[in-house]
Structures are given as C-alpha cells and as structure tokens.
Protein 1
Amino acid sequence: MNRIEVLLATQKPFAQSAIQQMEEALGAANIKLEQLEAYADRKELMERLKNVDALIVRSDIIDKEIIKAGNQLKVIVRAGSGFDNIDIKAAHDAGVIVMNTPGQNANAVAELVFGMLLWGARNGFNGVSGFELKGKTLGIHAFGNVGQNVARIAKGFGMNVLAYDPYTPSVVIYRSGVEPVSCAEELYSKSDIISIHLPYTPLTKKVINRELLQNLPEKAILINTARKEVIHEEDLIAMMKERPQMKYLTDIAPAHPAEFLEMGNRYFATPKKMGAQTLEANSNAAVAAARELINYFESGNVDFKVN
C-alpha cells in the first residue's frame, strides 16, 4: 500500500513550530507531509496536487480548476474556521471532502479585537483624551467561538455585553454572562461598540448596510474581524461621512481603501488579515488539521466535514 501524502499549501506561511508539530503528528501515523509555502503561482499549486491524497490550506483560494488538478485528492482541510475560500460545490461534485478546524484561532482573534478597540478608544494614541471601556456596552454580532472569547475578555474590562445570534440558543448566551437580544437592529441600537463575527454566506453578504448601521449611536465603533464581504462598504463610508465621530476598525483590507483613509484616525486596518496570526493559533490549527486527517484516514471520521 502506498504511503498517504498530504500537501500543505499556504501563501501565508505557518510558523515553523506549527509545521513541525504537524509533521510530527502525521509522521507518527505514517502519513507523509509535503510543503508548498509562500507560492506565487496557482499553476505551481496545481502541479504539486498531482498524486496527493489530502490538501491543507489557510486562506488560499481553492476553486474548481485547482480541485480538478488533484487527480487522487480525497480531502481538503481548511486550517481555520471560515471556508468561503474553497469552492464547496466543486469539491462535492468531485467527491472531495472539505473539513475545517473551528475554534482554534478564537482567542487570537478576540485579543486582536481588543487591541484595535483600545486603539480606537484612545484616538489612535494621538494625545487627545479618549474613553475607558469600563461601563460601555459591547454588542457581539454572532456568538460562535470567537464571539464567546470576545465576551470573556470584555467582562474583564467591566463592559456590559449583549449578543445577537439567531443560531445560538438564548440559554447558551445567558450561561456566558451575556444578555441576548432579539434582533440585529436591537443590538446595534443598544451598543456603544459592535464586534462583527459573521461567517460569509449568501445570507450575510453586505448585511451590514445603511438600514442596520443607522441604528448605531453617533459615536459608535464598528469592529470587523470576520469577512469584508459582510460589510456594505459604500453604505459604511456614507455613514462615517454623516457621523464625524463614528469609527471603523478591521483586519481586512477594504475594497475602497482610499475613501476609508480619508477618515483619518477614525479608521484602522492591518496590512494583512491578522486575526489568526499568533504562534499559538498557528499551532492549534496545524495540530487540529493533522488530527482530522489522521482520524479520517484511519477510521473514516468526518466530524468536521462542511460539505
């Protein structure tokens, strides 16, 4: 029987310690790990996919053409939670299983939320008096793994925390010491700060629009560490122009950066998506991806299948 081969293909490289952990875990199960990191050409990825049994990626775009290049590809693991970078239908049609590793970067993203929030609350540290987080109301839009970690940290700052998530039972939100609200409009109207953690789906595309944003108070801070596609950028830009104290903080490069940059220190974006960029999150996701592949090839386990 030929040895199972896994290709780790990431334009945004893992930390070396994470790769080592992945390699050790797979090696112990007699699974060979090949690496293609910081590649610049999709054709290089397609060539390397030949005769590979499994593929591990991060935010890399995996479309129908790439999936088709994997002539014996059986499974793709997204080392992270969101999987909108993978053509799920094409994978399904090709008989390829897609899995993700939810929750592995949740604390890393939550800590970044508060790094950016402190920057916003203190006016970009420009010397002008800002405000404290204690006693302010934080609204969490989607209460999954990241949202729950954001709530945990917020309570340490003495904040009041609300959450809206139609897919999470109110009792789960209550158990976290957070007050559930009945709709997004209520969340936005009652919060000084909104932290967005929505996945990108056809239902959430541009759902953060003028109709919803107009419920915010005049001095609101909007934080997005989810996906840029959930934001209606034109509506947000218009709202920020109408409300000279509103702020937008994100780790996702917008489609219209020049217009946001005109907002001065009311806008902040990291150069690249940084939510999961910690050694710990890298290691967590790498080990989880390796574990899922081992379980799949040894016992057919597909607990984290998304297609």
Protein 2
Amino acid sequence: MQHDPANAETYNRNAKAYAAKISALDAPLRERLSRIPAAQRWLVTSEGAFSYLAKDYQLKEVYLWPINADEQGSPQQVRRVIDAVRANRIPVVFSESTISDKPARQVAKETGRKYGGVLYVDSLSTQGGPVPTYIDLLNVTVQTIAKGFDQ
C-alpha cells in the first residue's frame, strides 16, 4: 500500500474477504474430525508435506517419505507405514497430486483400510482443473480429508 495508497481501502477490503473465505473452510473440517476417535486421528500420506495442517487439526502424522526424499515408496517405507496403520487402527490413507498414488494405495490395500483420495499441497491445476486457485486447493483438500474420515 506504500506504493499505491490511493487504493489502500480496496486492498484491505479484498484481503479481509479472502481471509474470510479461507476461514470458512475451517469449521466443517474441525466438526467432521471431532467425530473421529482421537486415537484414530492420523493423517497418512505419501509425502510428509502436511505437517502444518496436521498440527492445526490435532492430527498425528505418518508418511511414506519426507519432503523431497531421494527414496519414494521403497519396500521399507511402505512396510513402516503399513505397520503404523495397523498398530493405530488408522482408517484412511491419502496421496498427493504431484506423485504416484501407488504406494498409498498399496498401504490401503494391504491394511484393508480406505484409500481416501488425492490431496493437493503445492501445485494448482489449469483453469479447468480441480484446483485452479488457492481457495480451491484448500477446499478440495479439506473436503477430501473430511470425506476420507467419514465412516
């Protein structure tokens, strides 16, 4: 606003409206997750890219590999997550949009758990795709997680 003080009011109004849209996504997810027994509130993903989201929603997190790992979906990584899913009776497994869903689907299949779908973390789609804006990315990811936990 330092460079365009004449439009400061417009910028502030738009920022508040955008923040309100983001906040509106929060309540439905919190309400749905509150129905899941605390011991089963785990976010299982392929890549450890959702730590902030997991922390914000009091989810424990388990993932096949850390962000930008050299190994992705090794037998050891898959086995570790399978063991964690079984031990903690975790009901659902997710994958990310930018990588193969095969390791996450393998974990779901071998544990008899639900594959919850694709989460979006760091890339938007084209205008005609599922997440052309950041608000769409948040909405689709939140709805996918909530739906994945529906029993």
